[in-house]
Amino acid sequence: MLQVNDLRKTYGSTTALDGVTFDVKPGEIFGLLGPNGAGKTTTIRISLGIIEPDSGAVLYNGKALTPEMKDSLAYLPEERGLYRKSKVIDVLVYFASLRSVPPLEAKKRAAEWLQKFELSNYANHKVDELSKGMQQKVQFISCLLHDPALLILDEPFSGLDPVNQILIKDIMRELKARGKTIIFSTHQMEQAEKLCDRICLINRGKVVLYGELKEIKRQYGSNSVHVEFDGDSSKLHSLKGIGAIDLYENYAEIKMDGKAAPNDILTELLPLVDITKFSVEEASLNSIFIEAVGGKDVD
């Protein structure tokens, strides 16, 4: 559906994109991942024709983007752009009209989506009377009213509480089940891990990981130990047999060095902390992300 070929973009002495290449298949959820400032938004804006690359090309089904094609696309920018003094329903009908949806049909679709997003009671409220999370959901709805084939979402979970993040994830899965293609950018690896079929991880303008999420996780191995514990987490830095450790207050994800077995790690841990949970699992996308970008610029 979408082919991004060798995109390059500089701003003065800053290289924003350095040969970014990937493709997005029809009907998949594709994650464009990376730390803040990695080049995700620049890639998206070039893909939508908002800015021009210095070199490279973006193709939709083998063709350059045309104005006619844009009616099959939807874009949720990271910066929100609603008319704050207008009523929610009026804003939604207006945005739908820009994509040639008749007013009565737009109002019907808006009412259906407002119900799904638990916002029916706010249809006649002014946008600036809504919380930031509600406004985010309204902006998401505005992307759906013209029934696009491809949605490009830049940081769609920004500003949402955990309950509404789950709601957005459920809607994204529903859209995929209906045959829609979704590209979303994020630096929240947990969200990407739960949703994506394939990913492209960009760091400092370059692609550092690309492909099926399952295959990438297989390449990074399954020798990862997850530990929940009570006690002083600083003691875990002295463990033997570890290649890397992602350490939090009462949780650690340990990547073994290939020489030690999980039981060896458990034996090391027992005198140091009180273990409440110990499991051997595949490496998380978060740990792969940290390893791939070298622990730098991670938000």
Quick structural gist:
The protein is α/β, with parallel strands linked by helices and 299 residues long.
Give short descriptive properties of this protein:
299 residues; alpha/beta; Rossmann fold; Alpha-Beta Plaits; 2 domains; six-stranded mixed β-sheet; four-stranded antiparallel β-sheet; 9 helices; 14 strands; 30% helix; 30% strand
Can you put this structure into words, describing what you see?
The chain contains 9 helices and 14 strands. Helices cover 30% and strands 30% of the residues. Helix 2 packs across helix 3 and helix 2 runs parallel beside helix 4. Strand 7, helix 5 and strand 8 form a beta-alpha-beta unit. The chain has 299 residues and is α/β, with parallel strands linked by helices. It has 2 domains: 216 residues, Rossmann fold (3-Layer(aba) Sandwich), CATH 3.40.50; 59 residues, Alpha-Beta Plaits, CATH 3.30.70. Strands 6-7-8-3-9-10 form a 6-stranded mixed beta sheet, sandwiched between helices. The chain has a 4-stranded antiparallel beta sheet with strand order 2-1-4-5, covered by helices on one side. It has a 4-stranded antiparallel beta sheet with strand order 12-13-11-14, covered by helices on one side. The longest helix has 16 residues.
Structural topology:
Blueprint (H helix, E strand, L loop, with lengths): L1 E10 L2 E11 L4 E5 L6 H8 L7 E6 L2 E2 L8 E4 L11 H10 L5 H14 L15 H11 L7 E5 L7 H16 L3 E6 L2 H7 L2 E6 L2 E7 H7 L4 E7 L11 E6 L3 E6 L5 H8 L4 E8 L3 H8 L7
Parallel strand pairs: 3-8, 3-9, 6-7, 7-8
Antiparallel strand pairs: 1-2, 1-4, 4-5, 9-10, 11-13, 11-14, 12-13
Helix pairs in contact: 2-3, 2-4
